[in-house]
Amino acid sequence: MYLREPLTQLLASPDTIFSMADKMDEKKVTPRSQDFAAWYNDLIIRAELADYSPVRGCIVFRPDGFAIWENLRDELDRRIRQTGARNAYFPLFIPQSFLKKEAEHVEGFAPEVAVVTHGGGKQLEEPLIVRPTSETIINHMFAQWIHSYRDLPLMINQWCNVVRWEMRTRPFLRTAEFLWQEGHTAHATRQEAEHETLLMLEVYRSFVEDFLAIPLIAGRKSAAERFPGAEQTYTIESLMPDGRALQCGTSHYLGQNFAKAFDIRFLDENNELQHPHQTSWGVSTRLLGAIVMSHGDDQGLRLPPSVASTQVVIVPIWRKAGETAKVLSVARDLAGKLTDAGLRVKNDEREGVTPGFKFNDWEMRGVPLRLEIGPRDVAAGEVVAARRDIPGPPGKSKVQLAEIVTSVRAMLGQIQANLYRQAKAQVDSNTRQFDDYAQLRAQMEDEGGGGFAELYWCGNARCETRIREETRATCRAIPLNQSPDQNGRCIVCREPAAERAFFAKAY
RNA sequence: CGGGGCGUGGCGCAGCCUGGUAGCGCACACGCUUGGGGUGCGUGUGGUCGCCGGUUCAAAUCCGGCCGCCCCGACCA
Questions:
Q1: Which of A62, A163, A191, A277 is the most exposed place for a label (fewest CB within 10 A)?
Q2: Which residues contact residue A53 at a Cβ distance below 8 angstroms, ignoring those fewer than 6 apart?
């Protein structure tokens, strides 16, 4: 399904000297500027984050890729628990009839649902679907657990896999099976549920920006982009360097739609039967794709220290046999000191590969900080530190061994902040305001994704549809808390428009 | 489902036109060498050429059928 090697060689101009080009391609990934999609695929394979599987649309998470997910998951899980939600686990299989209970929900998901028709060698009485999301089965259980306002709020989160039979898949960004967390809550009042929806949006926003160093626009979705069955969908959207937007997480206010469909009722303080107001919210392994694209360069991955499986790699260097023991001893001592300080450290003592090879290897894998230590450094009581966020000689500096822990901690903090700064600059330079529809169309026709377009939109679906059909850009987010503008005019119909929206071509 | 392309060691490809029993690069293993930015050399492992059938003394190569995959389109939080 995916091309293991990019099409770039096939697409290369006929006068390319293949014998030379091939030699280069074996060592380097496809340059990002040349073919963004090929660069992305190359990086994932070469950095050993994931591999293709024999099953169409499904990928294997290799240890280095899964470690990023684990680090990300542990931190987000901690933040989710802080809001009061608790983890639980619901079945992978859901009775097919459940999906049909909420009209919009079934319409939205039925086409991409996998169905199990046989088990134990027999045809099942009722087919089971493999969950594409768990609203139905969780609300079925909520109906049995909720009786009184004293049972509310009920806040459940689960980490699991889900399956959506996508027609077109890409590693991390859209796979048939993916890992995610899905939160589901039920509240006594609309206000409480709406507050929860926005609270979780803010949890996601701060988590992705601070921990993953990915700049975002937070806002609500247009009616057309809403989750099937939701009253309101909120989103965090990022912009990839190729100018296409990536939805990084969503939080939905479900109103009473599912409560009514699944007959969830409780007695309030006045002994009156009420349907609770609900929310659901989730982020997925798609975030790994966002990390790769937002930070990576032609040398490979660039991982924020917060999620990197290895934060610091030590490369010992020696020339003569007599130097080896001394260098290794200092390197090991250094690794121990940093590990004791709570850092994730690797000491690369491989023989038979040159230091230069190791430098490139660890840069490909995105390790934020490399410490080179050779005979000269040992003699001087220092190491050479090379920052992954600053390529080449400018990123190198000498650090005294005596103050190594403090220095490394400081540099990791600087790298985390700088990766965000670089990504933000990239997004800002690709975000434009438009007041003229012809200019918007021209921008979106350009090669590449077209970037974020910030514009006034009246909110009418007809104008939104026209933009989508004529520019292929969709409404990604309508930022929250805008101060109403009396002078705004819809970019399409010129009617008064109170709010600005961000449009972009999306993944 | 419509249009286009491709199936040859793990990966990328050549060989096919003009049949003679498979080759190159990378990767991998071993040895020496090298080591502060992807060292160099040597030796070696690994393939019923997508599948089935036909033609022929002989098929990766020619003929027929089938299967699979990829790209574009349709579709899609």
A1: A191
A2: A59, A60
Identity of residue A271: N
Is the CB atom of residue A28 positioned under 7 angstroms from any atom of strand B?
yes
Q: Is the CB of A269 under 7 A from strand B?
A: no
Q: Give the three-class secondary structure for A346.
A: strand
**Residue A346, token pair as written in the block:** 């690797």
pLDDT digits (tens), chain A, 507 positions: 222 222 222 222 222 233 333 334 567 788 888 888 888 988 998 899 988 887 778 888 999 999 999 999 999 999 999 999 999 999 999 999 998 898 888 888 888 888 888 888 888 999 999 999 999 999 999 999 999 999 999 999 999 999 998 878 888 998 888 999 999 999 999 999 999 999 999 999 999 999 999 999 999 999 999 998 999 999 999 999 999 999 999 999 999 999 999 999 999 999 999 999 999 999 999 999 999 999 999 999 999 999 999 999 999 998 887 888 999 999 999 999 999 999 999 999 998 899 999 999 999 999 999 999 999 999 999 999 999 999 999 999 999 999 999 999 999 999 999 999 999 999 999 999 999 999 999 898 876 778 999 999 999 999 999 998 888 899 999 999 998 878 899 999 999 999 999 999 998
Question: Cα-flanking dihedrals φ and ψ of residue A361, to 5°?
Answer: -60, -45
* Local structure of residue A332 (DSSP, 8 states): H
In this complex, the answer to whether residue A247 has its CB under 7 A from any atom of chain B, a nucleic strand, is yes
Helix (H) or strand (E) holding A259: helix A257-261
Report the distance from CA of residue A167 to the C1' of nucleotide B1 in Å, as an integer: 13
